[in-house]
Amino acid sequence: MDWNLATLLKPPDKIPKNWDSNKSYLERQYKLLLEDFVQPLRDALSELQNNPTSPNISNLKFLGSYKISQQVSHKFLGYQLISIGNSCDELPLPGSLVVLVPETCRSRVQDPGIVLTKAELDVPKEGQKAEFRISILSEDIENSLVYKVYEYSVYLEAYIHHLKVLANSENVPLSKYVVDADTQIEQPEYLKKTKFPITFNSLKKNRSYNAQTTPLTVNEVYTLLMKKKDDKFETNIDIEKCEEINFEDLDNYELLDDSQNKSIKCCLSQEISLVQGPPGTGKSLIGTTLVQLLLENKHVWCEKSNYPILVICYTNSALDQFLEGLLPYTQKVVRLGGRSRSTVIESHTVSNIRQYMKDSQLRNQNLYTQERELYSKMSQLTLNAQESQENIKDLMKRYSEELESLIVQETKSLFRRADILGVTSTGAAKYFNIINDLQPRIVLVEEAGEILESHMQACIPASTQQLILIGDHMQLRPQVASYALAREEKHDISLFERLINSGLPYSQLNTQHRMVPEISKLLLPVYPDLKNHLAVTKRTKVPGISKSLFFLDHSFAEDQTMSGSKVNTQEGELARNLAKYFVEQGVEPSFITILTAYSGQLRLLKSLDVHPGVVLETVDNYQGYENRIVILSLGDRLPLKCEVHGNSTLVASPQDFDKVQDGGCGAEICNHILLCEHKCAKQCHGSRTRHSCMQLCPRKCPTAGHPCQKLCGEPCGNCTYL
After folding, report:
1. Dihedrals φ, ψ of 237, to 5°?
2. Alpha carbon distance 270, 188 (integer Å)
3. What pTM did the predictor assign?
């Protein structure tokens, strides 16, 4: 990608409307993705160039004024920015585009002018603050100047790797369907050649291979991957004695509903498969079940060398969740990328495995020696005052690339031994060359309806023989930066949606297992064929409230943080108090989730002393998860219902919860009959608050025989009679 300012400000190249070959198809995908990133940046830079003193530039967040320090260390090719006092508290996200403008520019930016940089990751030592680090993308920086610094709102890391892959691609995997729009789907190549039958033993009730549920330590994961004997998933199966099972026989397995059975059949028998399903219909279950069956039949598609199944998800949270679901079937799972938040998956991440190898002195000694030599050269280079800055920059770049190559060599040896290689769509492009060298034959993509087609093409390795896309284009389309491009070029339509629209056969899940009917009926205008599984009609109702679904509209004023995120204090307090009320009704705190659309509101909720155990999250990060009670947005009036007396209490503000102290209706005495046959004299309360008898104790002292001086509900203790 050309970061020259003059190039970025030029009008875009013409984007081809149609394609008649792999080359023209890839050209279109590259130009669409490039323009989606550059178009808002072009407008922002033009505005900034003409008015450099303006604090409000479209798509640029002002971070403050900074001066430039020297190169940070021998391990880092770039600079550190040091605040001069008026900076934003938040550092930019590593991998984002950072724009620098000299403070000396007042009317129009001239040389030395705008500098484009990338924010780099800094992992501080304990007790230290993270440093603001950047690497240069465009022209060199002037160390003597003070710069106004902006963060571009479109995330660079989500584009730059995909653009690099597309720019160097010549072939399109499964182009028969993707490029030529053929709708006659064939079997995967390995099914045409195999002599083995397909088995479905792991779907039988009470049958599970390698059903390991306890998370492994990083030591155990490494040991498992390094075993010389390939202890594969199917070794417990006597292949010669397996009974051949037709795909139609899947109907006899009761663990799946009819639509799920049909989708499994299609995915196992086709070289490209699309599975579409509304919320709660088991899309992730289909994915994990398919992987389970593919591992059971690994001898069919993986006869000689080991080829991991490549699992791709759009988000880190979805990837963590999906990989967790695979661990009962195989622990030989490796996760690429460093943004996992799962304590279960952390032992399976490449970074933690490599750190364990380093700490335990298990690394390849030849590669380790070469790495130390490179670090030594880089360290000496930064201390060499005789070397020009240009030479230092060139040599550091070369050494960094050699270092990356060594890391890749060491990492690939781990991947080759894995059953599952998990990665996000951004990670799949970032590590495309590594993945391509591993030659995975089977690729499964979750959240396929949310991934741009240009991104998808930069994720799929050339060795792919079977592509399984699972998603729902009826929910969320891919996120785009340029809405004009989405409108004119339909850039916001995923490959998943385009193939469905072009007539490629697909499977549709139609039975939801998540929501009570009162909630699921809201989806019928979008999914008219959606059915409720019998289990959801038998769910117990939520205590302390009259209905399962409410829409509340409030008029509480909201504020905006320095970073531009929205906050609403009264709404946050209302959500906190409602969660507390449910806990007082006896609901387990972990069964309650409070969601918000804004990161600022999430920070506010975390500061409001919400009951411990209640889940707090943004809507984006909670995709694919579920809970029994979800509080999303509050307002107008919410009718709470007393479980004891049946009284309704309307709440419309945080203060209204004072009417339902301890979870009761507040209108009557509890009057619950206790074991002592007296009635609880407390004001009405929820099940979490203990009943209490306030009558005088009728018992007599067992020693002296005098009447007890305490209340009936109090423990006797030592005699206090005078």
Report:
1. -100, 125
2. 6
3. 0.82
Angle in degrees, 0-180, between the axes of helices 218-226 and 350-359, rounded to the nearest 10 = 90
Q: How far apart are CA 597 and CA 575, in angstroms?
A: 14
Indicate whether 335 and 462 sit together in one domain.
yes
Please identify which residue in the block is written with the tokens 């899947």: 250
Q: Are 160 and 430 in contact (CB under 8 A)?
A: no
- Choice among 77-81, 497-501, 643-647 with the minimum mean pLDDT: 643-647
User: What DSSP character marks residue 83?
Assistant: E
**Do residues 301 and 231 lie in contact, with contact meaning Cβ atoms separated by under 8 Å?**
no
Determine contact, residues 436/308, Cβ cutoff 8 Å.
no
Q: pLDDT tens across 107-127, in order? A: 565 545 788 999 987 766 677
Q: Does 534 fall in a domain?
A: no
Residue in the structure block whose two tokens are 């279109």: 28
Q: Is residue 516 part of a domain?
A: no
Amino acid letter, residue 516: V
pLDDT tens digits, residue range 536-593?
998 888 888 888 888 777 777 777 665 556 788 888 888 898 899 899 888 999 999 9
Residue 41 in this model has a pLDDT that exceeds 90: yes
Euclidean distance between the first and the last CA atom of the chain, given in angstroms as a whole number: 92
Q: Are 39 and 122 a contacting pair, CB within 8 Å?
A: no
For 59-112, what is each residue's pLDDT tens digit?
A: 998 888 899 886 655 556 678 888 887 666 678 889 999 999 888 776 565 545
Show the tokens assigned to 538: 């038998």
Give yes or no for a contact between 646 and 640, defined as CB atoms under 8 angstroms apart.
no
Count up the domains in the chain and report the number: 5
**Among all chains, which residue has been given the structure tokens 């969660």?**
579
What does the CA dihedral 51, 52, 55, 59 come to, rounded to 10 degrees?
Answer: 80
**598 and 568 belong to one structural domain:** yes
DSSP 187-230: PPHHHHH--SPP--GGGSTT--TT---SPPPHHHHHHHHH-SS-
CA–CA distance, 510 with 507 (Å, rounded to integer)? 10
Taking the C-alpha atoms of residue 660 and residue 650, their distance in angstroms, rounded to an integer, is: 10
Are 238 and 139 within one domain? Answer: no
Helix axes 350-359, 389-415, angle to 10 degrees: 100
- Tell me if 167 is assigned to some domain: no
What would you measure as the largest C-alpha separation in the chain, in angstroms? 104
Among 154, 183, 199, the domain boundary falls at 154
- Helix (H) or strand (E) holding 412, with range, is helix 389-415
| 575 shares a domain with 440 | no
Contact 356, 219 (CB under 8 A): yes
pLDDT tens per residue, range 383-409: 666 777 677 777 877 888 888 888 888
In a domain, residue 162? The reply is no
